[in-house]
Structures are given as C-alpha cells and as structure tokens.
Amino acid sequence: MKDGKRIQLIHGKTLWRTALALLCAVVCACAAGRAVARESAAEREAKLRAGFLYHLAKLVTWEKDRFTDDKAPIIVGFLGDAMPELPDYFESQAPSYKAQNRDMLVRRFKLPAPDADKAVIQKRIGEIQRCHILYVPRELERDIQKFPGLFNARGTLIVGETRGFAEKQGMIGLEIVKGRIVIFVNRGNLKRGQLAVSAQFLQHAIQVDSKSEGAGTGQKNSQERQKH
After folding, report:
1. How far apart are CA 83 and CA 214, in angstroms?
2. What residue spans define the domains of the chain?
3. What is the tens place of the pLDDT at every residue in 15-26?
4. Which is nearest to 160 in space by CA: 172, 168, 146, 143?
C-alpha cells in the first residue's frame, strides 16, 4: 500500500473514532440531562410541599396538653418512602424552621403489615399518633385506611396529597396543579381530631365533606406519579 493511501486510511480511522467518541459523549450528556431534569422536578415539588407544611404548622391550634412543655417541638411525621425528597428536604431545613415558638422535629414511619401481631400494630400506631402533623403520600392513602385507629388520634393533623383523601378520613389534601398547591380541607375531620386552623388558611382552601366518591383518587394519582 502506498504511503499516501496508508496515511488517508489512518486519518479516516482517527476521524471515525473521534466522531464515535463525541457521539457517545452527547448521548451520555443527554441521558444525564434527563436524569437531572427528573430530579429537579421532584426537588421542586418537595420544596413546595415542605414550605406548605412549615407555614401550616403556624396556623394550626393544638390543645396545650398535646405538648409535654412549652419548649416541646412540633413533630412532623412522614409516612413511607414514596417521595424521599420531601422528608429529606424538610429535615435539612428543620434547624431554621420555627412555628409558634417551637422547633420542628422530623420523624419517618412505615405502616405495619396488616397481618402483623396485634401488639406490633398497636405499638406502631401509637408511635405515629405522637406526631402533630402526619404526611401521607398518595401511594399510601388507600393502605392507611386499613388502620382506622390512626384516624382516632387527638391532635394529629393528617395531610394527604389528594382531594379524595380529604373526602375520606384525611383532614387536608394538597394537589399540585400547574406548579401551584390546591388545598382541600375537611372541617368535620379536623373537629374529630380536636384541631382548628386559622380563618386566613380556610379562605384559601376548598372545603369538602366526608363521602365515598373520592375513594379511588389516591390510586389514580399514584399511577400518574409512577409514569413520571
């Protein structure tokens, strides 16, 4: 083979390898970009919901005996791990959060297995009931109905992610529509828990009553979250 042709061949291979390397880099960059976009969306939602919970703690009235003393923290419980960004972010901000001159403390819980020993179930429910605010992701809005004792807690504000949850046994439902939170409040369920929220808060909420029509909302929205 002549030297000229050999040089052209080597040069051609070099260009091909360079182009292939660049193509791989572009593909990897695009994949990484999509992953970051997904993470950013989850983080944005977490920050939005965390901010709401923080301000909500300022607007709720608990009976005095729900706290051991005047310095006892407001305990915010997060159920399950369907959206870990939310408790992670809230916990990272908790040192700077104060509501009603109280610190805010994060606790994470999992529901007990329905077929677990009765003593185990009662112990877990008792632990969860110590929360002042309990956040229930939409993925667990149906499962939590299997433990009616959780809804009998005095002074535990139970917050879900759908209107349907508020129309069942939840007290507040938070739906995000076009980047904004839509609030649903069940005042009957608040009264059951011996809780009150400010009139200012109620002015920005849609009030709902307990009924059965919303039973499937949590499952539907769970499927929508999984798609994204």
Report:
1. 22
2. 41-227
3. 445 444 433 443
4. 172
Q: Which two tokens stand for residue 2?
A: 């002549």
Contacts within 8 Å (CB) and 24+ apart, 124-129? 125/149, 125/150, 128/77, 128/79, 128/153, 128/156, 129/153, 129/156
Of the candidates 156, 163, 148, the one whose C-alpha atom is nearest the C-alpha of residue 190 is 156
Architecture of the domain defined by 41-227: 3-Layer(aba) Sandwich (3.40)
Find residue 177's DSSP bridge partners: 180
DSSP helix/strand/coil, 15: helix
Main-chain dihedrals φ then ψ at residue 33, nearest 5 degrees? -60, -40
To 5 degrees, how large is the angle CA 55–CA 43–CA 81? 85
Tokens of 85: 């960004």
With a cut of 50, say whether residue 29 has pLDDT above it: no
